[in-house]
Design brief:
By secondary structure, the protein is an all-beta fold. 0% of the residues lie in helices and 51% in strands. The chain has no helices and 11 strands. The strands form 2 sheets. Strands 2, 4, 5, 6, 9, 10 and 11 form a 7-stranded mixed β-sheet that branches. Strand 9 and strand 10 form a beta hairpin. It is globular and about 40 Å long. The mean pLDDT is 96.
């Protein structure tokens, strides 16, 4: 079992910035993909950003140019830097970890991001 823990959510005005952090109980160097999903009330969970162990990244179109995902293997951390936040970014953000040796993805408990207009 792998524990995933997020932090860094909060309330921010439109145009502001937040950085989310995620760590796991396992060395992230052994995890193939880590990233963030989000879910707003009444909406389906959507993939926001992901990063592979090789450093390849992908983003949902709505956050391209505003969000940056990165990983620091030495600190066992993955970050999501969110700039130019919009009210539509308001959601619960979940960190996930995906490994070839695991049957299922591992999920954090979620952190609330609220962007006021």
């Amino acid at each position: 079992q792998v524990q995933v823990v997020e932090s860094g959510g909060g309330l921010v005005p439109a145009g502001g910035s937040l950085r989310l952090s995620c760590t796991t109980s396992r060395n992230i160097g052994s995890i193939n993909v880590m990233g963030w999903y989000r879910q707003a009330p009444g909406s389906q969970r959507e993939l926001v950003a992901a990063i592979t162990s090789a450093g390849r990244t992908n983003y949902v179109d709505s956050v391209k140019g505003r969000f940056t995902i990165s990983r620091d293997n030495a600190k066992n951390m993955v970050y999501l830097q969110m700039n130019s936040l919009k009210p539509e970014d308001t959601a619960v953000y979940y960190c996930f970890a995906r490994a070839d040796w695991a049957r299922d993805d591992y999920w954090g408990q979620g952190t609330q991001v609220t962007v006021s207009s």
